[in-house]
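User: Hi! I'm working on a homework problem where we have to compare a predicted structure to a textbook description. Could you give me the structure for the chain below?
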Amino acid sequence: MAQLIDGKAIAALIRAEQATRAAHLKENGIEPALAVILVGEDPASKVYVRNKARACKECGIRSEVIRMSAETTQAELMAEIERVNSDPALHGLLIQLPLPAHLDEAAALAAVDWRKDVDGFHKMNAGALLEGEEGVRPCTSAGCMELLRRSHVPLTGAKAVVVGRSNIVGKPMALMLLEANCTVTICHSRTRNLADIVKNADIVVAAVGRANFITGDMIKPGAAVIDVGINRREDGTLCGDVDFDAAQEKAGWITPVPGGVGPMTIAMLMKNTLDAAEKHGR
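Assistant: Happy to help. Predicted structure tokens:
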């Protein structure tokens, strides 16, 4: 039976660490602050933003939620991004995705000052990760790495398989595992013999967005399984990309859904915001 990796508990520890850092910054005259731009009325986005604001309050970070209508033009959005970029009292800027379909998401993300890019999506930060240089790491992938490290999963020399190749999770996850001296394989929808590849993995990171895509018979005995997926079943309950019940019988470590990777994403957002305030705050 696998050891359960409790993302809620680990995220709470990280938030407590960030609260200590925030208090120290305030003692030195810097109030860490995060701006979040929310465009439109997407219900899920509203929930995410509310959760981020709650985490900011817990960590001692001032949050400014900038609400813009669904009819916002590209020019209006870019102007608001520039306003936050030029405000020295705001250390981090997050654009809540997805944006309404008529807006250019890539252009908006590219317009964010890379020093305030707490999501780690700017090309400057993506390039720093690719070249192994210091920079902002994407929150979800960074959270997965913290789960592995704080659960004492051996990384050096481990065979790691990342299932999913998105710019948000799959690719940065693979690079961060490589940075930790793992031997990394990226799989995707066109991968041949996927099951055979996953069966050889000491670490499996599932990020494909398909319920129970990774079955129990694909898991190597003793492997660490990190499930990034969040899928809603017909009955309204949530499940991951991994068949949890079957996989936990073979894995050495496993994350649940919910309560695994999800809380870590926001915890790492808090860390990235404090990093930005320490480096660039005044």
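For your comparison, note the following. The chain has a mean pLDDT of 96. The first helix runs from residue 7 to 27. Good luck with the assignment!
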